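User: Round two. Same drill as before: sequence, then structure, for each protein.

Assistant: Same drill it is. First protein:
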Amino acid sequence: MSNLGGVSVIFDLDGTLVDSEPNYYEAGRQTLAEHGVPDFSWADHERYVGISTQETVADWRERYGLRASVEELFTVKNRRYLELARSSTRAYPEMRRFVELLAAEDVSMAVASGSSPEAIQAVLSGTGLDASLRTVVSADEVAHGKPAPDVFLEAARRLGAEPAGCVVLEDAAPGAAAAHAAGMRCIAIPYVPTQADAPEFATAGLLLRGGQEEFTAQTAFDWLVRSAGLS
């Protein structure tokens, strides 16, 4: 039994555990360029941070008037992303350290992500995080992606944990909203610092407005201990 009193921790993947957004942007830029949209910018990409790939490409199709089907766009973008993910995804060092601290306390952990199962596995195995993070839920496996709570509730179910005993780590407003809707506490680390004032982040138990630059494994661990009533 963990010294953290039965607390379970659920990690978002992209932008939270690993810095994969540059790969998602590049995969999206290449896909859209192939379909006649040559000027997809990083600012354009930022509006999709925290939203599943399926929902992203569906929005592209409408926003840019694309002829390709959602399925075709999804397949192309996912293939391009997987090529990048396998070779060039970086885990945030302090997040890796946090996983190690939790593992040492036998804390139950899971990953709940809007990415496809293949993309999640590519990233976790490529970074070595799969050694500690074996319970994985993709938005593809549930009815609704974030901001709906489905992925987090399914992660809790697979861990055998009550939602109230779960703490979510999230970098995006839709994910913070999903954690709140699931009845879970949240440590929020905004990937886009200018979005730190988003109302969804106001529900977080711990909001690190500076994002990953402000996050430390020890700060998060100490907050977890305090919030479990063990300090």
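Second protein:
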Amino acid sequence: MTEPTGGRPPFDAVLCDVDNVIRFYDNSGLLALERTAGLAEGTTMKVAFAPDVDLPVLLGQVTPREWVESIAAGLAGLVPDDTAWELGSTLLELPFRADEDVVALLRRARIRVPLVLVTNATLALEDDLAGLGLADLADDVVSSARVGLAKPDPRIFRLAASRAGVRPERCLFVDDTEENVTAAEALGMTAVHFRETADLEKALAPLL
């Protein structure tokens, strides 16, 4: 296969985050419920994504439903118990969609190099990807809940590179969280802070 102009691409594998890169959530229903309950918008997510609440579910130590219980406990005293449970359940069940432009770019890149998804996710990730029609998007999926490691732990980046069959310094890493981008760069990866599809397209240009 002919290499792009300029010779060998600067990477031999693509490691890509899922949430807020490939998958996007619609939280409008949750925000409406918070307003009805008299809570400031974003309160439920602030509780849910505090490290002591979300890390156990991201490491696969608790189930998503147990995560909801922890969220409800964190909201205790702010709203009635049944409302706290409803808020947690609504967060867990937020509707989501895939960005088809991002998916198309990744599918094109995968023709040239291995693609591995590396993501902080719950045990529901595989079912979620299947529901989006993306079960076959990548060569492998490194999910924090399955491997017991979460970004920005450098071990999860090394594991993802190993699954791709390349050295870390030959990987392109794409993530929407700057902390994770910095961690990948520290391992010698080419790292991209994803904010919009154009960021990914530019990074993949040597392949496409």
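DSSP finds eleven helices and seven strands in the chain.

User: Perfect.
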